[in-house]
From TrEMBL:
Membrane-spanning ranges: 7-27, 60-83, 95-114, 120-140, 160-180, 200-220, 232-254, 260-281
Protein name: Uncharacterized protein
Keywords (A to Z) from UniProt: Membrane, Transmembrane, Transmembrane helix
Lineage, uppermost ranks: Bacteria, Bacillati, Bacillota, Bacilli, Bacillales
Keyword Cell division attributed: no
Cleavable signal peptide: none
Organism, as annotated: Bacillus changyiensis
Keyword Nucleotide-binding: no
């Protein structure tokens, strides 16, 4: 694989710093505990008040801790496993590696632009930089003109592409249902809390959901970029959905939030995503490495 040495160094940096950041996020203590504050918009916001996330709203801080657990227990081991196997020449592992790197890229992009400034700020910068450049190097290693030949003919492109398009429309509709009413009635969305904007929704709508839609569309059209893009995106989406499910569970059991209907819908979508990711990776032909 091209850029193997540089990619390995960058990934090891990600592993060390991601483990460090996740442990700090999960176990750090200190602070006044939960308290209320009035935002610049005149709204009462419950602040978490403990550890590294003490200045974040309670709801978002809990979600950050949930994602730290997923990063520590799922994403980091998968990153190391896929790196090890890809260094041995596994084509399947290369797709897993790219998808996992995209997870780290999105995760620390959100941490950098959404988490309130804290002592891990430089760590988030390095993690985002290492994730971005390692992801770029990983996708540059593919022969994009031979995308289709990497997969067995029995791969159902309509199934995969249809799901990715459905995912983009479903998530996009959910975010727009939050944003559009607030724009029409001149009020701020409840999810805004004391933050300046909606980075998760904005970046999803601008970058990651169009990527899902286009990957799905291109694989249905049997374009080489669609085969590679959809395989990478399904691995990435599987990790993101695991993180989303963990956030919902933490909000229910820690914050006492009402998880209906998300606690029913998200596990189903998560399971379908993982099944399709496994199905797609299994249909990668190792002999084309």
């Amino acid at each position: 694989m091209k850029f193997q040495k540089t990619l390995t160094i960058l990934i090891l940096i990600i592993v060390v710093l991601a483990v460090f950041a996740a442990i700090i996020g999960i176990f750090s203590e200190g602070g006044p505990g939960e308290f209320e504050m009035t935002s610049v918009r005149g709204e009462i916001v419950l602040i978490y008040g403990e550890g590294i996330y003490k200045h974040m709203s309670s709801e978002v801080a809990i979600q950050g801790i949930a994602q730290d657990w997923v990063t520590l227990l799922v994403a980091v081991p998968l990153l190391l496993l896929s790196l090890s196997l890809s260094r041995r020449g596994s084509v399947k592992a290369r797709f897993m590696l790219s998808g996992t790197l995209l997870y780290f890229l999105l995760t620390y992009l959100f941490y950098l632009v959404m988490a309130m400034y804290n002592q891990l700020f430089l760590v988030y910068i390095i993690l985002l930089a290492a994730s971005f450049f390692s992801f770029v190097l990983s996708i540059l290693s593919y022969d994009w003109n031979l995308g289709k030949s990497n997969f067995r003919n029995q791969l159902s492109v309509k199934l995969i592409g249809g799901f990715l398009i459905f995912n983009a429309i479903l998530m996009g509709g959910m975010w727009l249902s939050l944003i559009i009413p607030s724009l029409l009635n001149g009020k701020y969305p409840e999810a805004l809390d004391h933050y300046t904007t909606l980075p998760v929704q904005g970046l999803d709508l601008a970058l990651f959901l169009p990527l899902s839609f286009l990957s799905g569309l291109f694989v249905i059209q049997k374009k080489p970029i669609g085969y590679i893009g959809s395989a990478i995106y399904l691995v990435f989406l599987s990790l993101i959905m695991i993180a989303l499910l963990s956030k919902i569970l933490f909000m229910i059991f820690v914050n006492g939030a009402d998880g209906i209907p998300a606690i029913i819908i998200i596990p189903v979508i998560n399971l379908v995503t993982i099944i399709l990711a496994v199905y797609t990776i299994k249909n990668v032909k190792e002999e084309n490495r």
